[in-house]
Amino acid sequence: MRKITTKIFAILFILTVSLSHAQAKKPTIMVVPSDVWCNKNGYMMEFNNQGTKVKIPDYKRAFQENADLLTVISKINGLMAERGFPLKNMESAIKTLESESAENAMLTSKSGAGVVESPVDKLKKVAKADIIMQLTWTLNTAGPKKSVNFTLQGLDSYTDKEIATATGTGAPSFSAELPVLLEESALAHIDNFNVSLQKHFDDMFENGREIIIRVKKFDSWTGDLEKEYDGKELSSVIEDWMAANSVKGRFSTSDATENMILFEQVRIPLYDTTGKAIDARGFAKSLQEFLKKAPYTIPNKLTMKGLGQAVIVLGEK
C-alpha cells in the first residue's frame, strides 16, 4: 500500500512540474522594421550623441506614410499571437512616448558625467518588451510574378544580442497580396524561430537576464572607489553587494579604477516578488540606496540608457 501511495505522489509531482512548465511565462515581443529596411525606404533621421551625429530609424514617419509597414507587421503579429507569444504594439508605444512630458536628451553633472538616450532606447523603455523582433522584407517582381524575401532577427532588448534568426523566400505568385506572400514565406521558419526565442527566455527565467552597471564619481566628490570602509575598499564593497544580489552571483567586473568600475553580464531576476518585471534601473536602485546608508552615506545619481544599462555617479544627486 505504501509503495502504491508513493507512486501516486510521484505521478502527481511529475504532472505538476509538467503543468508548471506548460504554463511558464513567454517573452513579450515587439516587432519593428529593421534599420536596413528603414534606410532603404528613406525613413531615417539624425540625432546628436554627445557631439556625434548618429542616424537612427524614423519609426513614426514610417508608420504614418507606409501602409505596407502596418500590414506586414500586423501579419507577423498575428502569426506570433497564434503561437501564444504576447506582443507589444509598436505604433502604440510610439504614441505613448510622444505623450510624455519633454525629456532631456542628456543628463549631465558638474563632473561632466552623463548618459545619452537615443529615441530607440526611449522606445524600448516605454514598450518594455523582452525581445525586439527586427523585420526586413523585399518584394521581388519577375514579370507578372511576385515573391517576398524576408529576414527576422530576434534581439534581446536589454543587451541587443541576437538570439534567433530566420530568413527565406516565398514561392512566386501571380495574384497574392504582400501579407499572403509574407505569410507563406514565414510559415516554414517561424516555429523554429519561436523555439529559439523561448529557449533564450527560459534561460533568462532560470539564470536571470543580463544588464550592465557602471559606477562613476563626480569631480566634486573628494572620495573615490579606493576609499576604505572598515578596512575594505569601496570597489570591493560594491563587488560584494553584486555577488550577493545578482542571480547565482553571476557578473563580470570588466574594468575598475579609482574613479570607475564597470560590471557586465550582470544577471538579475526577471520579476520581483510581486511579479513586476525588473529592469536595470530597478536593480541599480537597490545599490543606490545601499550606498546612501551608513557607513557609506554617499549621495549619488542614477541614470539610465534603455532597459539594460544603468549608471550610478557618486558624490552628488
From TrEMBL:
The superkingdom listed in its UniProt entry is: Bacteria
Q: Which UniProt keywords apply?
A: Signal
Please state the span of the N-terminal signal peptide per the UniProt entry: 1-22
Q: Which Pfam families did the record assign?
A: DUF6175 (PF19672)
- What this protein is called in its record is Uncharacterized protein
